[in-house]
DNA sequence: CGAAATGGTCAAGCAGGTTGACCATAGCTT
DNA sequence: AAGCTATGGTCAACCTGCTTGACCATTTCG
């Protein structure tokens, strides 16, 4: 495979990823969750199952724990999450989503589904599902790094 | 297609895009082009063919022209580009890549090819090429927005 | 028990972006 | 040709998100 093809693939992938991010965020905001940024969505993805500590979150986002702590301050102040004492470790604090945080997460899922539906209209459901399979096999396990 | 599938697809796509960005940038730096950030790569992609004005670049990157001008200052200072008078418009200045700028662009292509090769090892060339075709059909035409 | 490691926060600084103001040149309308 | 408006570009001030560095509380291990 030629360098130019690799570059074309990279450009297309990054363009699609950028637009997807934009669409999800726009969709979330349009559903009434103002002041949300894409980084919040990545945080929610980590918090959603069972909550997480600030340090966990920092590792997941690929930033310092101070930055993660600031981000938690923000989503707590806006009512999307709260800090609870950690059941097993008196040093740590477990950050969990509030009801509003869950609602926002569902809004993000809906927005993502809308964006994907647009792809299904162009490619058909089979190809989109195939793409999911392919991407899942090459997706890294490490931290989600929105670093660009 | 369910919301959860759409979310999984989105997460995989963003994870792959994030890692690709990281790998390309690391590869560029490893090839001797220090101090480069992913945003520079997006700028080079626009400058490469025939140069561009600061305003063009700003539209392409989705930032203000002041921000684009600062970025041009930086790549000029580092020797990757230069500002030349615009042939048709005395107000405008055409930003073009220098030899070093072209070398950096080629390094980025090589790094991208390395990253794609890793995918070919997992998926096979056919599926990677199929992915290119699919992505090309859903890629937006608007500005590349690394906004997240 | 005491030393080192870990979870978390506070404070200061930096980097990259934004808004606002401004100048020079183009282009259009008379 | 004259004048108004639009466009390309830069300078300056500010804002936001993240980093580094210092520090305290608690846990873990020798």
Automatic annotation (TrEMBL), chains A, B:
This is MarR family transcriptional regulator. It comes from Streptomyces regalis. GO terms for molecular function: DNA-binding transcription factor activity. It comes from the Bacteria. PROSITE patterns: HTH_MARR_2 (PS50995). InterPro entries: HTH_MarR-typ (IPR000835), MarR/SlyA-like (IPR039422), WH-like_DNA-bd_sf (IPR036388), WH_DNA-bd_sf (IPR036390). PANTHER family: MARR FAMILY REGULATORY PROTEIN, TRANSCRIPTIONAL REGULATOR, MARR FAMILY. Transmembrane segments: none annotated. The lineage of its organism: Bacteria, Bacillati, Actinomycetota, Actinomycetes, Kitasatosporales.
